[in-house]
């Protein structure tokens, strides 16, 4: 048994009382299994989705039954959006949730072409705690392949549904999931010339949405800390861009340092102890780090070109950034101390907004070539460039924590004469398939994907 993250009755905010999420493995039935058929290679170009049956979780009272239905709905939506699973229509199901507690009739599930089967139960104790169990079956092999149980307060069911989704994704693909995460982004509203931009946060599926700033000041480029509890972003104060820290739990905002020039493009170091950003002084922009404990700043680049948009490699040893020092806007890497600067892109057009993958193997970027914008990826040594999507304007890639999915924003003209603008968030697989809109209450731009919630 192990204790996982703490969370509160108010969605993800940790306010008031804390509720422990306790998980344990359901060991029965899957020790030393034969080779399972329920596997998928997500490194291939366009894998066929696995047909999977996700039944409502059986409840021991009407409220638990409703929670069980809600959990099944969240899991089904998560897995379907991944593009790797095809949830089957419940009308085709051959067993009820209660009959599944007695035993799985694998032959019947094979008749409806189910390769995977997800079942579960929800039970509630008098003290208000809820126990949620789930099991994943390989229908072809006729065996359970994983199972977990969680004990939470009743309002913790949504997070458990995301954690179960991650467990299924990992068991089938062999890689970590990305469903138990949040997105911070810029919520936009109003006409193009008077755009209101607010900091907003939501779960990766759009639930638990809330605004973090009121729109009185323009905010840009939010980025999560590794702990997921802080956000660094740019905000204008008296028309001067400054870098801020925002504590999600307390709502406290803090100006990061008192610099003589303008600061922008902030991003945390992998250990969360530093923020790397651009500082403009005397008309020139270079890259600096700021130690969050000592508030000591260190200059990494010193070049008359514009150096900006830095992003650390996941091991903290290197930094990728964009610069026009070679005459056009291109991507460069350097050691974390600023030494050994190397140009890694040489294509036509301009490259910007580089972000190092959490896996360390790729760098995502925005490219403007001709009259189109592209989202692409390239290896850190500058080889293997691939363009994943294109549009009138796409920008701001951010990685899911497993390094297999990217999110970005897409902007297009709208309204009479195309004088207005519409901005939406999208996600796409690393393979360039499964592009999907991420629904938000308002227009949206500049997303940042959190690590898995601790």
TrEMBL record:
Task: Show the PANTHER family listed in the entry.
Answer: PROTEIN TOLB, PROTEIN TOLB HOMOLOG
Q: Which Gene3D superfamilies match?
A: TolB, C-terminal domain (2.120.10.30), TolB, N-terminal domain (3.40.50.10070)
Q: Which InterPro entries match?
A: 6-blade_b-propeller_TolB-like, Tol-Pal_TolB, TolB_N, WD40
Q: Does the keyword Cell division apply?
A: yes
Official protein name in the record: Tol-Pal system protein TolB
A GO CC term assigned to this protein in UniProt:
periplasmic space
Q: Which UniProt keywords apply?
A: Cell cycle, Cell division, Periplasm, Signal
**Domain of life, source organism:** Bacteria
Q: How does it assemble?
A: The Tol-Pal system is composed of five core proteins: the inner membrane proteins TolA, TolQ and TolR, the periplasmic protein TolB and the outer membrane protein Pal. They form a network linking the inner and outer membranes and the peptidoglycan layer.
Q: Its principal location?
A: periplasm
Q: Name one GO biological process term.
A: cell division
Q: Where in the cell is it found?
A: Periplasm
Q: What does the UniProt record say this protein does?
A: Part of the Tol-Pal system, which plays a role in outer membrane invagination during cell division and is important for maintaining outer membrane integrity.
Q: Per the similarity annotation, which family is this?
A: Belongs to the TolB family.
Q: Which organism is it from?
A: Niveispirillum cyanobacteriorum
- Does Acyltransferase count among this protein's keywords? no
Gene name, Swiss-Prot/TrEMBL? tolB
């Amino acid at each position: 048994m192990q204790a996982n993250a703490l969370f509160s009755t108010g969605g993800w905010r940790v306010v008031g009382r804390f509720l422990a999420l306790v998980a344990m493995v359901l060991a029965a039935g899957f020790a030393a299994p034969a080779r399972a058929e329920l596997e998928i290679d997500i490194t291939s170009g366009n894998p066929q989705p696995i047909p999977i049956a996700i039944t409502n979780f059986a409840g021991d009272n009407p409220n638990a039954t409703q929670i069980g239905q809600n959990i099944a709905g969240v899991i089904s939506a998560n897995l379907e959006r991944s593009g790797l699973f095809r949830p089957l229509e419940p009308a085709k199901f051959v067993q009820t949730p209660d009959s599944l507690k007695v035993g799985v009739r694998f032959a019947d599930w094979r008749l409806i072409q189910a390769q995977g089967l997800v079942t579960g139960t929800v039970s509630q104790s008098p003290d208000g705690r809820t126990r949620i169990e789930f099991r994943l079956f390989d229908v072809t092999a006729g065996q359970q392949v994983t199972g977990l149980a969680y004990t939470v307060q009743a309002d913790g069911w949504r997070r458990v549904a995301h954690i179960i989704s991650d467990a299924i994704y990992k068991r089938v693909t062999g890689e970590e999931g990305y469903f138990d995460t949040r997105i911070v982004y810029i919520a936009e509203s109003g006409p193009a010339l008077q755009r209101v931009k607010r900091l907003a946060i939501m779960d990766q599926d759009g639930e638990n949405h809330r605004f973090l700033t009121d729109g009185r000041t323009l905010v840009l480029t939010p980025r999560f800390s590794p702990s997921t509890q802080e956000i660094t972003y740019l905000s204008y104060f008296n028309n001067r861009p400054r870098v801020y820290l925002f504590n999600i739990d307390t709502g406290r905002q803090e100006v990061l340092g008192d610099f003589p020039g303008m600061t922008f493009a902030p991003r945390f170091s992998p250990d969360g102890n530093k923020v790397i950003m651009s500082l403009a002084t005397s008309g020139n922009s270079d890259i600096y780090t700021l130690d969050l404990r000592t508030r000591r700043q260190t200059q990494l680049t010193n070049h008359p070109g514009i150096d900006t948009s830095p992003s650390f490699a996941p091991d903290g040893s290197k930094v990728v950034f964009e610069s026009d020092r070679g005459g056009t806007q291109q991507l460069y890497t350097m050691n974390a101390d600023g030494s050994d600067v190397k140009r890694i892109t040489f294509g036509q057009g301009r490259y910007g907004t580089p972000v190092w993958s959490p896996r360390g193997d790729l760098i995502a970027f925005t490219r403007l070539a001709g009259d189109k914008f592209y989202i692409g990826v390239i290896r850190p040594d500058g080889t293997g460039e691939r363009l994943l999507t294109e549009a009138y304007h796409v920008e701001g890639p951010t990685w899911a924590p497993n390094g297999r999915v990217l999110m970005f924003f897409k902007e297009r003209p709208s309204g009479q004469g195309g004088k207005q603008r519409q901005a939406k968030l999208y996600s796409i697989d690393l393979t360039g398939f499964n592009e999907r809109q991420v629904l938000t209450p308002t227009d949206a731009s500049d997303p940042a994907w959190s690590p898995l919630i601790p």
